[in-house]
Amino acid sequence: MNLPDNMYKVWTIKSILDWTSNHFAKKNISSPRLNAELILSNVLKCPRIDLYLKYNQILQENKLSKIRELIKKRATHYPLQYLLGETEFYGHRFFVDENVLIPRPETEILVDKLIEYIKNNKVANILEIGTGTGIISITISLYFRDKGTNFQITATDISDDALQNAKKNIIYHNITNINLVRSNLFDSVKGKYDLIFSNPPYISEQDLRILDKEITEFEPHIALIGGIVGTEYYQNILLSASQYINGHSKIFFEIGSEQSKALKHIAKNAGFRIIDIFKDYNSKDRVALLEKI
Prior knowledge:
40% helix; seven-stranded mixed β-sheet; 2 domains; elongated; two-stranded antiparallel ribbon; alpha/beta; Rossmann fold; 12 helices
């Protein structure tokens, strides 16, 4: 893909924004204008608002070359977050790459509920299963950093590459209370915890086929697929969780919007019960709170 030489006499920020927005729209890229703005602000290393303050600025060839490269790749539906190497979550910047799932806005509900629970309960030791980018553990640590609430988090993942991504984010945010552990669920976990949470893979093999191309072709399936029916990870976690909890411990899960009924059955068979189900921004079931029966 080449920016057409005959479209404008010179390439200004305005002309590139306009052309790229139209190009992305033709390629069925969602939010084409926003995508164009984010690419330009990334290359020019400036806030998006500055693009409009410098609307008529002419860009040099070295900048245009990088912009062309990013536009071409984004037009294939390669995720913007991977393209830029970063994303925003809960108002914070996080690094992401192809080895980790791209954080979703719905996961902020899980963060909200974890923060609320920690505020109102004595929590010293926390376990996260399947940390990925590390965003959940890091975000709650950032929230409580200057509030006098101290706790330690053990954050696990089966993927070495995901743990490297999480480590990069931990270093960037100067977090000191998170210990990363390579583990398949509880395999390398020791001790007991006041709070366990997980946003595990919960997409069924069937549902994966109907998801957007940006998800199915580019995001790691190991972080997406929760088995044939999508609930296998909840079952595996709950079947072993009793060995790692205290009498007052609670477990939080992010769940699929139609999985609460299945989770209730799984929890009962494993000796747990659902205390509450919390809705997301679209009024769909998104977070489950459980305790030992």
